[in-house]
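Progress report, Aim 2. The chain analyzed during this reporting quarter is listed below.
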Amino acid sequence: MRAQNVLPNLQICRGLAALLVVVGHSLHDLDSIAAREGLEPLRTSVNWGCGIDIFFVISGFIMVHVAASDFAVPGAPWRFMTKRIARIAPLYWLVTTTLILGALVAPGLLNVPIGGARHIISSYLFIPDWRPDMSVVRPVMALGWTLNYEMLFYVFFAGSMFMPFNRAIALLTALFVGGVAARAFFRIEQTQLAFWMDPLILEFLFGAYVGIAYRAGWRLNAPAALALGALGFVLVTTNLPEALGLNVDGQFIRYGVPAAMLIAAATMGPSPPDKLPVGFGVALGDASYALYLSHPFVIRPLREIWLKAGGAALPLGAFSVVCAILAVLVAFALHQYLELPIARGLRSVIGRTKSRAAPLPLREASGQPAR
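Predicted structure tokens for the chain:
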């Protein structure tokens, strides 16, 4: 049976977004295999990186969906941030630590060497910083660059929760839009500010406004949801607009808007029947964070194994298929035996802390029995 608070279509989209990223990164390593074997690289017209845009829109939606009723409630911002850090940080810190330790054992598996103390500390604190080679702003665990944006969104979202919901969303919108405009107008180049003011942050707002529409009762019938979702999916994953001569400037518009269309269709459309494929999609969505963070640890060693096993004699496309299957299996295991136990443990600790910190009812505090 499916939990009532789970939006199955949204979970399926989360799983799909993570899977797109996995395949895209496997194709990147596949280029290395092809280059070493003197083969032509496998070319596709799919925008595999759009999984990130879908993730950002989903994040904006989920925050509104789960926290809208907590605005202007005493203590809500602290509770919100505590839950988000407990949800995001432990697994990320674990894989970051694993990567650092792995660099000491097998540095040849890394594309870029681990940086110094500042780079490592910045990575753990979700602060953008340059790689050691100064090629791009990335943490030790390169995929964590998206979490630097996520944490920024959480901080501003929590900071707005001191006021009523509508005012808070207006403030959040003004801050994000104003930040993007200020970066362009004043040509801000300071590393952290330039990173955090990137127009990509507007994709969180797209998701938040989809969440507002969902809370307001907007719904789509099955044909309308299918049409909107299919159009959004095609636009976000393919180069169809460019093929039609429509060149759109700005990733947040080119990919963020179609991603928002997809998520609007997924959340406002009817739920699918509770069948096995849907259950698998929901389970993949549940494990999507583990899949996102763990798949490089599958792809990179598999690349070396593939080469030693005679990569030239194997179909190039098979590499990405095997990577996806193994990465999903590893993610399911991590989610079940690591991510969920950590989450349950942290919830227990947070719950006990809140219980000890909560003031006694007036009658209990005065020694009188509470009714």
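The radius of gyration is 22 Å. The chain is about 70% helix and 0% strand. These observations will guide the mutagenesis work planned for the next reporting period.
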